[in-house]
């Protein structure tokens, strides 16, 4: 595995690549970093050129206090690596980044594999989704208090238990070990500066003509299951695979 850094204006992006063949880019979930892909890199790199990176503000990629676009960062990484087309595999917020990128640059995407994903522009339309976001809002004050007090593991546990409450103890601890290192110590969280494309991806699904395989853990939170099923229904050629026993982060379930 080769560890490298791409220097951009206001930030540096940490990435790794291994293997050869069709490029496959692995994009991590929102409160984790590229370490969540350790097992997948070992398997996928036997047949593919695998690239994983820490999204700006997470893991070893530095933060910035200027407005930026995750999709633009991904484009810069592909250009830097001279990759014309890649398969994008994104989990949770990584799926959101995949959709943001794909609607802006569909010619650069060979295929998409969004996993238990979010997507910009989607409005909650059912009781399960509304219940999820209500719970997120209710837990935010406690999360912010713990973060301010430097109780990073306790703060991270709020996110981990909200999104992956069905995990076994071993998997929970594995995710929590990574998540606590991505708890930010002030109000300048990466998402507060991130700009997604306009119109948002949910309103531009029609431009996505590449193969799309959606993967969903059957034990994900109901609100996310409803969202994923809705997006699948709007992309007729997409496929949806449900993994029994898997949670919001199937690769670590």
Overview in brief:
35% of the residues lie in helices and 19% in strands.
Describe the 3D structure.
This protein is α/β, with parallel strands linked by helices. It has two domains: 181 residues, Alpha/Beta hydrolase fold, catalytic domain (Rossmann fold, 3-Layer(aba) Sandwich); 56 residues, no CATH class. Helix content is 35%, strand content 19%. It is built from seven helices and eight strands; from the N terminus they run E-E-E-H-E-H-E-H-E-H-H-H-E-H-E. A six-stranded mixed beta sheet has the order 1-2-4-3-5-6, with helices on one face. Strand 7, helix 7 and strand 8 form a beta-alpha-beta unit. It is globular. It starts with a strand and ends in a 10-residue tail after the last strand. The mean pLDDT is 90.
User: What is the count of β-strands?
Assistant: 8
Question: What is the CATH top level name of the largest domain?
Answer: Alpha Beta
Across the major sheet, the strand order is 1-2-4-3-5-6
What fraction of residues sit in β-strands? 15-25%
* Rough outline: globular
What is the residue-mean pLDDT, rounded to a whole number?
90
| Tally of helical runs | 7
Order of helices and strands: EEEHEHEHEHHHEHE
When the domains are counted, the total is: 2
